[in-house]
Design a protein that fits this description.
This protein has five helices and 46 strands. It is mainly beta.
């Protein structure tokens, strides 16, 4: 039925199109094939095919190029036109076609077998569409094909053996499909391959040794392909390689120590997220054109001895999550000294490498273009060097999870481009410097779990982009500065818990209307819970436990309808448990160890014993039977009934 409808559409187009075949020089076949192509387009938002009509010769249609001699279609170039539709088999009638480029559209359906009739085809680019089905075996008949680009579709099955017959093929781009069956060894028979890019397919299997025959190979990317086994030594003989990626597989084994000498032209090297072991080859120093080095999340061990001084083009280094430190050598981070010549360096990720030394002062000599520095979760110790303030290009600085001591350097205030600063879980002491108020671009600040003392600097109120602030688990005292509570940018997290903060909770807390998490537990805050807190209608978690709050839970909190967790335990709160709490979709609520009186609600969260706690409130009654509370006495009054003991 679908074929019949398609045939009727095509016939109708042909019958309603004025005949101008005499002006086509007998090339009506191409004309009709193009009309078939247009008939299968269901959406053309940019009007790219508007010119495909009888008023002009098809060689002048948008996206169509013809040869000057025979006036036959040689190129269809319709990349990024927003087209939706399918590819008709009649395209196989364009016998002079050399290039078909439909990249970045929304073509769907299968790739027609009839493309195999295009014996002159050199470039086939169908990437970034929604094609499904298998790779047609008939493509093997396109004996002149040089570029096969089918990436970013929904293709299934395995790479057909017939592809190995394409002796002119230089580019194979099949990334981001659903191809299986492994990377076939027979591909090594195509000696002309220069680009092989198949990342993002669930191939399975191992890297075939036969691919080492590709002596002209420049780019090899097969990341996220579920590959296992070791990398064949033959791959390291492909001396023309500029790009090499086997990231996010399950590869094992070690790398040749002479790797950098064998592959001297590398521009990017990506082996992250594997199970590789041994040393990171020091010979990478020879890769003078290297721009990206990604060796993170492996089991590399031994001291890092790469001399980066000759890698003047490098801008991203990811060595995190390896075992590069902890060998008892004081110079295990000496490589930092050689990075001073890398003037283009923008990203340096060294977290979770088990470094156990003091951070070298030379860290301050790194590139002014350095924007991302991650040294978190090591065992770095000693004082933070003042030179860190020289890294004025930083937008992200992670120093958490170490053993740094001493004070936070006042020079931190020079990093005025900083958006994220984390120093959590160290042994930093002294005051939080007022200079943090100079970090006007700051979005997230985490200084939790240190030994910081004194007051919270009111200068943080200058950070008008701050959306996350965590100062928990320190020795901070005095009142919560109103300047912090007047930051409308605080939308994600405010955690001041486990300090010694005192005084009342300022009414300005109501200005945090978009805040999601507010945690003030384990302080010495006192007075009533401010009714203005009811204005914080975006709250998901509200923890006020282990303070000295008294009075009743304000009725205004009934507006916190999206809250999922409430903790008011270990305070001096009194009055009845508000009935509006029954209407909340709470995951838990803790009201234990207060002085609540009267009836325990039985609906909502209070219907599930595992989701609430009311321990330590001796004057409560009622609730469901399993609580074991006394029944509430009904005392009749003029205006109704009141439950009490």
């Amino acid at each position: 039925m679908a074929f019949l409808l398609y045939s009727l559409v095509v016939v109708t187009i042909f019958l309603t199109t004025p005949t101008i075949s005499t002006s086509y020089g007998g090339n009506e076949t191409d004309h009709q094939a193009l009309l078939s192509f247009k008939s299968m387009i269901t959406h053309d938002p940019n009007g790219s095919l508007t010119s495909w009509n009888s008023s002009v010769h098809f060689c002048d249609w948008n996206g169509v190029t013809c040869g000057k001699r025979h006036r036959r279609v040689t190129v269809i170039q319709l990349e990024s036109r927003g087209l939706t539709g399918s590819l008709p088999p009649h395209v196989g009638n364009l016998s002079f076609l050399r290039q078909l480029n439909l990249t970045n559209n929304s073509f769907h359906g299968s790739i027609p077998d009839e493309l195999g009739r295009l014996s002159r085809l050199r470039v086939l680019r169908l990437g970034d569409n929604k094609f499904s089905g298998v790779i047609p075996t008939n493509l093997s008949a396109c004996s002149n094909l040089k570029e096969l680009s089918l990436w970013g579709n929904r293709l299934v099955g395995s790479i057909p053996k017939e592809i190995s017959f394409l002796s002119e093929l230089t580019d194979i781009e099949l990334d981001d499909n659903d191809l299986t069956g492994g990377i076939p060894p027979f591909l090594g028979n195509i000696s002309s391959v220069e680009v092989f890019s198949v990342s993002g397919n669930p191939f399975g299997g191992s890297v075939p040794d036969t691919l080492g025959r590709w002596k002209n190979l420049r780019v090899f990317t097969a990341g996220e392909c579920n590959l296992h086994g070791s990398i064949p030594h033959s791959i390291f003989n492909l001396s023309l390689l500029t790009g090499f990626s086997l990231a996010e597989n399950q590869l094992t084994g070690s790398l040749p120590l002479a790797m950098g000498t064998m592959l001297p032209h590398l521009v990017f090297l990506q082996l992250r997220n594997n199970n590789l072991t041994g040393l990171i080859p020091p010979s990478i120093s020879n890769c003078s054109k290297l721009q990206v080095l990604e060796m993170s999340i492996n089991d590399f061990n031994g001291k890092l001895t790469i001399d980066f001084s000759e890698l003047k083009d490098i801008y991203a280094i990811f060595l995190n999550d390896n075992k590069l430190g902890g060998h008892g050598e004081a110079d295990e981070m000496k490589f930092i000294d050689s990075l001073k010549n890398c003037s283009k360096l923008e990203i340096l990720n060294l977290n979770t490498c088990n470094f156990q030394v003091e951070l070298p002062i030379s860290i301050g000599n790194l590139s002014k273009h350095l924007s991302f520095l991650n040294l978190a979760i090591n065992q770095l110790h000693g004082n933070l060097p003042l030179s860190i303030g020289n890294l004025v290009g930083l937008t992200v600085l992670h120093l958490g999870g170490n053993r740094f001591t001493g004070k936070i350097p006042f020079t931190i205030g020079k990093l005025q481009n900083l958006g994220v600063l984390t120093m959590y879980d160290n042994q930093l002491a002294g005051l939080i410097p007022d200079a943090v108020g100079n970090l006007l671009m700051l979005i997230g600040l985490d200084l939790s779990t240190n030994r910081l003392e004194g007051h919270i600097p009111s200068s943080l109120g200058n950070c008008h982009h701050l959306s996350l602030l965590d100062l928990s688990n320190n020795l901070l005292v005095r009142k919560i500065p109103k300047q912090i509570l007047q930051l409308p940018s605080l939308t994600i997290w405010l955690d001041l818990s486990q300090n010694s903060l005192s005084g009342s909770l300022p009414t300005y807390v109501g200005d945090l209307k978009m805040l999601t998490y507010l945690v003030l537990s384990f302080n010495n805050l006192s007075g009533n819970i401010p009714s203005s807190l009811g204005s914080c209608t975006s709250l998901s978690l509200l923890f006020l436990d282990d303070n000295l709050f008294d009075g009743e839970i304000p009725q205004s909190l009934s507006s916190l309808k999206g809250v999922e967790g409430l903790d008011f335990a270990h305070n001096n709160l009194s009055g009845q448990i508000p009935q509006f709490l029954e209407r909340f979709l709470l995951e838990f609520i803790d009201l234990s160890y207060n002085d609540f009186v009267g009836k325990v609600p039985v609906l909502g969260v209070f219907a599930n014993r595992s989701k609430f706690s009311i321990l330590g409130n001796s004057r409560l009654c009622g609730g469901f039977v399993e609580l074991g509370l006394p029944k509430c006495k009904e005392i009749k009054k003029k205006n109704g009934f009141l439950c009490s003991l």
